[in-house]
Structures are given as structure tokens and as C-alpha cells.
Amino acid sequence: MERGYTFVLVHGAWHYGDLWAPVAESLRIAGHEVHTPTVAGHAYNAQPGERDVGHADGVASIVEYIRRNELKNIVLVAHSFGGSIISRVAEEVPELIRRLVYWNAFVLKDGESVADVSPPTYNLMMDAIAEERGDNCVVLPYQVWRDSFIGDADEATARHTYGLLCPEPYRMLTDKVPLKSFDKLQIPKTYLNAQADVAMPPGQYAWFPRFAERLFPCRVVHMSGSHQVMFSNPAGLAEKIIQAGRD
């Protein structure tokens, strides 16, 4: 891949832009420009009222970031929930995007929410957490994080990174997402699949090939690692993002 690509990395649920730092550093060392915006409502120190946002607010925040920084010809990369964001961003600014990369990310159809394509057990768990908290945010129980999200890391890394997470505005996961023109866009797409990722459980809800099929025709890139390989092997993830994003 030639040097000088512009990557915009969009984080997943419970994350914010700064958590991409080790991956972004590796991409910059390789000669690329990297941006790591934070989706509206996800700032680590956000006040409770600042998390009272919906999916459309999240999309608008990324579109605004791209326009404010006068970015163009970008490789727009998303992790997990972020996939639902970049599909809508692509509808808003298709002329600014060189390629879309979905790393173990949700690829929604028109009118779906992230919750609609998640296992019912997850939704029941999240509903209960949101009701108990009373602020319409959800947090992952540690054991779910440890076993399903970051099983390839040691205990110290799992504990440390769990402490970095922020509450997730629940509407980001439950809002229905309108995608009226996505299927007609001529933007090249890649699905990057971490093969040990069981944040979506094996079977009918597995990330791959379920969501890659929705992008067909697309490039597919595989790597080892969990849903949080950005923490367990950031340099390896950066290498695969470069492979996924090349022309």
C-alpha cells in the first residue's frame, strides 16, 4: 500500500477516540495520516446530560468532524457499533470517501438498529442495565468484557482496559437507522474479521460471514484476535487496517 493515505477511525460502543492511540501510532509510523474522532455522547468525562443523544447525533458528529477538518479521499474505518455510523456517514459525504472498512462491525439494513441484529440475551441484559441505571446508558458487566470481548489478553490488560470504558448512550444501539441509498453507493468496501471475536456469539449471530455478505462484493481480510485486538495487538491490527484499506 502506498504511503500517504488518510484514515478516519470510528470507535465502537463504550469507547471514544483516544482509545485508538496505539493503533493510530502504528499507522502514523507507517506514513499515514490518522484521525480518531469521538462519536457524540462518548467522551470519557461526559456529564450525564451529554450522553442524552441518539444515533443521528452520532452520525452528525462524524460528518461534522470530516467537514470541519476538510478531509477528503479518506479510508473510513469502523469498529463494532461504529459500523452503523459509517454507513450513514457514507450516505452523507460519499464524495469524500475512498474506501469503507468494517472491522468486526455492524452492517445494518434500512430501518434496523444494532439491537435488532444482536442476540436476544444481549438485549435483555442491556434493557435491565439501562433500567437499573436510570440514565438510559448501559455498561458492560466485567465478566462479559473479559470472556466475550477481550479473551486474548491477560487479566491485567483486561482489568486496565475495562477501566477506560465509558457508559454507552443506549439509543445509539436501539435507534432505527435509515439507510436509503447505501446499497447504491459505489464506494469500495472491506470487511476485516478478527477470527477469535466472540462478542457476537458463534452461530447465527456471528460477525462473519453474516455482515460481510451484506457488503458483497467486498474485500475480506482475516486476522487473529478478539473483539478488542486494538488493545491486545494494536500493531497487528494497524497492519491489517492498512491491508484492508489499500487500493
Describe the structure.
- By secondary structure, this protein is α/β, with parallel strands linked by helices.
- It has one domain: Alpha/Beta hydrolase fold, catalytic domain (Rossmann fold).
- 36% of the residues lie in helices and 16% in strands.
- It contains ten helices and eight strands.
- It has helices at 21-29, 55-68, 82-92, 120-133, 142-149, 155-162, 171-174, 210-215, 229-232, 234-245; strands at residues 6-10, 33-35, 74-80, 97-105, 137-138, 168-169, 189-194, 219-223.
- The protein has a six-stranded parallel β-sheet with strand order 2-1-3-4-7-8, with helices on both faces. A two-stranded antiparallel ribbon has the order 5-6.
- Strand 3 (74-80), helix 3 (82-92) and strand 4 form a beta-alpha-beta unit.
- Helix 1 (21-29) packs across helix 10 and helix 2 (55-68) packs across helix 3 (82-92).
- The longest helix has 14 residues, at 55-68.
- It is globular.
- It starts with 5 loop residues before the first strand and ends with a helix.
- The mean pLDDT is 97.
Total strands: 8
Walk across the major sheet and give the strand order.
2-1-3-4-7-8
Instruction: Output mean pLDDT.
Output: 97
The CATH superfamily name is Alpha/Beta hydrolase fold, catalytic domain
Report the order of strands and helices. EHEHEHEHEHHEHEHEHH
User: In percent, how helical is the residue content?
Assistant: 25-40%
Largest sheet: 6 strands, parallel
- State the name of the first-level CATH class: Alpha Beta
N- and C-termini, Cα separation: 7 Å
Q: List the total number of helices.
A: 10
CATH third-tier fold name:
Rossmann fold
